[in-house]
Each structure stands twice: as structure tokens, then as C-alpha cells.
Amino acid sequence: MNPLELRKQFPILDQEVNGHPLVYLDNAASSQKPRRVIDAIVRYYEHDHANVHRGVHTLASRATDAYEGAREKVARFLNAASEREIVFTRGTTSALNIVARSYARAVLREGDEIVLTPMEHHANLIPWQQAAKATGAVLRYIPMQPDGRILLEDVEATLTDRTKIVSVTHVSNVLGVVNPVKEIAALAHRRGAVMVVDGAQSAPHMKVDVRDIDCDFYAFSGHKMCGPTGIGVLYGKLDLLDRMEPVEYGGEMIEHVDYYDATWKESPWRFEGGTPIIAGAVGLAAAIDFLTEVGMDEIDRHSAALARYAYDRLSAIEGVTLYGPRERTGLVTFNLDGIHPHDVATVLDTEGIAIRAGHHCCQPLMRKLGVTATARASFYLYNTEEDVERLAAALIKAKEFFGHAIG
Ligand code: PLP
């Protein structure tokens, strides 16, 4: 895998920002798109677009083939047992909301437990808070080590016979830590609970095999893995999906309707009410082809190596505090002593370097880390050690700039 060659396939990366060649290090928020994904969407709109499923004309059947073909591609990408286990959603957030609204509210009783970790993104936290409020269930948290790791003995100690749902992020969007979701799933199943995995930060970077993990649900977003915005996936085991109520009612998702009642299609179509995200699915399929050709194992090695390289490089700069263990993937989260992360990000932008600053949709985790915000540099397959060097040099510059300003 050659990141510099891959970078050439991303038109947006070939530009200067504030007089410097762009270094894009905000991939955990959203990745950029290769030419072939952009082309696939344009080609679809120029040649094949129509509404899916209902039509008998040629364009309708081409659009339907493209949409359902994308579903088969996602099923293979995740090693799902069937394409009927793949629900297209707007992203990770809406996928997790489907589970929390439909599955959780049907099974949870007062006093039942939903188990999370302290590092969950708001998308894998607030839906569960709301499900708990609606049902009388309670939230419990697996303790986290000071460096951000989750130990299996702590998982075991947190689960009880009242645990009905365990929902954990596969990779933390703040700490970069990879959680042992396969082992956690086994412990959850031993208690009779279902295992939900937030895959927003793992699907872009590593081979995901939902049958090997043996999770019951897995959610991810297309836009973080070279696909377009507005498309994501909920994987669910078919026997669970088929027992779940839809969350949106209307066209496309019904089997039979009369004036007073209606019945639903089988999964996944019962969860896709209304005109679905057809062009998004086409773009996601092109992104999966691209990533598969590059090789998910290669991407995994690259993302982990670059994150550790950045961790070591930034650790060597006086005044930098890093969050999370060295063993990580995809990103580094840090602060510069005495300088607000928004100011750090602003100075870096003047150097053409795009990073993110804020709470990263993890406010409770920020409080646990004793900060209100951090800076975050996140990497993808087109980033290099050279990009990390530019980041490090710009941080030293920021330190000097604010050092003088403060001093
Ligand atoms: N979960 C994690 C770990 C994330 O990093 C994100 C996005 O940053 C999400 C969930 C939500 O993804 P989306 O905004 O695409 O729904």
C-alpha cells in the first residue's frame, strides 16, 4: 500500500490551504472521497436513476439492481450471513437509534440493565438514556482503566442476569483504543444479553467479521470510509431484525394496507420506509470496492502504525498531553499546556493542517479526563509520517506563538 499514490486518487487533497499544501487530519469526523466514488455517484445520476422497487421500467430496475447490489456488497464486506441482515440507514447515529427504539423498548422491563463504557460517543449513549427513561431500565458502566483500556474482568463484574443489552464502541473516537468486542460479546451472551457494536471508527480501518465477533448488531457510517454522507448501515442478526417493529412507517416498508391496519415487509425493507438513499448506497458500494482493493488488512496496519508514530512523535514535545494508551489505531487526541485546543486548531489551519478541536461528542468522557475539550488528529490511508512531521512542527510553532503571546 502506497499512501502517496492513493492520495492522488482524492481530488480534494490536491490543493493548498492558507498557502500550504493541505494536510487533512480530520478523518475520524469524515474522510475524503476518491475519484471513483465521486464518479460512481455521477454515473448513477447520469444513467441509472429512478425510484427503486416499485417500477417496471428499465431505469427503475437498474436503480433497484444498483441499490440491492450495494446491500449484497455490504453483507460480504461484513461477512454477514445474508443481505437481509443489512439495513441501510442515514449513518451510525440512525442505526443505533433503530436498535434503541425498536429492539430495546420491546424487550426492556423496569430494573433491566443496559451496559455501556465511559468512552461512548453521544450516538451510542443518548439513545440508551432515552430507552432507559422510557422503560425503567438502568444504565451501568464498565469501569475504564486510567489510560482508557477496558479489562474483561471489569466487563464480567459489571454484567448481571438483569443485563439485557451491552453496547460498546469498537474503536474510541477520542482514545483510539480498540475494545475487545468479540470477548465482550461472549460475556454478554453468557448472561443472555445482546451485543451492540458501534463500528463508526472500526469499519473504515479494519476487517470486520460480524460472525466472528458474534455481535447481534453492528453500526457504521459510509462517510468515514470514503463513501458519501447520508448513508450508513445497521447490521442485525436476522432472527432479531425480523422480530423488531419498524421505526418509520409509510411507503416501501409495507406488505398489505387497508384503511385501519397494515402489515410490514420482512427485514431489512421494513426498516427502510420511504424512498431510500439510493445514490448513497451506490457511493458506499464504490467505496467498499476501493477499500477492498487497497486491502483492509493493509489499511489496518497503516492506521495503527501511523497512530503510534504520532503518539511517540507528539509525546516527545514538551507541554503535550496525550490521552489514551500507546496501543491504538487511527488517531491521537492531545492538549498543549495552557493553550485552548480551538486556538491550537486555528494556528494549525494557518499552516494548512486540518485537525478537530472540541469534545468530540463525548462530553462525559471529557469530564472523566478532566478537560472540557481536546485537539484530535485522525489519519487515513492517504496520510503519511511526513504529515505527522508537519503536525509536530506546527505544534511547536503554535507553542512558540502562544508562549510569546502569553509571556
Ligand atoms: N460513533 C462514533 C464512535 C463516532 O466517532 C461517530 C462519529 O463521529 C458516530 C458514532 C456517529 O456517526 P454519524 O455522525 O456518522 O452518525
Query: What is the helix content?
Result: 40-55%
Q: N- to C-terminal separation?
A: 46 Å
Give the strand content.
15-25%
Q: Helix/strand-derived class?
A: alpha/beta
Shape from CA axes? globular
**CATH class group of the largest domain:** Alpha Beta
CATH architecture group name of the largest domain? 3-Layer(aba) Sandwich
Sheet with the most strands, sense and barrel status = 7 strands, mixed
Average pLDDT figure: 96
Number of strands: 17
Which molecules are bound besides the chains?
pyridoxal-5'-phosphate
Number of domains: 2
Structure write-up:
- With 407 residues, this protein is an alpha/beta fold.
- It folds into two domains: 3-26 and 296-406, Aspartate Aminotransferase, domain 1 (Alpha-Beta Complex), CATH 3.90.1150; 37-293, Type I PLP-dependent aspartate aminotransferase-like (Major domain) (Aspartate Aminotransferase, domain 2, 3-Layer(aba) Sandwich).
- It has 14 helices and 17 strands.
- The strands form five sheets. A seven-stranded mixed sheet has the order 4-10-9-8-7-5-6, with helices on both faces. A four-stranded antiparallel sheet has the order 13-14-17-16, covered by helices on one side. Strands 1-2 form a two-stranded antiparallel sheet.
- Helix 3 packs across helix 10 (278-294).
- The termini are far apart.
- The model has no long low-confidence stretch (mean pLDDT 96).
- Bound molecules: pyridoxal-5'-phosphate.
- The site of pyridoxal-5'-phosphate has 14 residues, from helix 4.
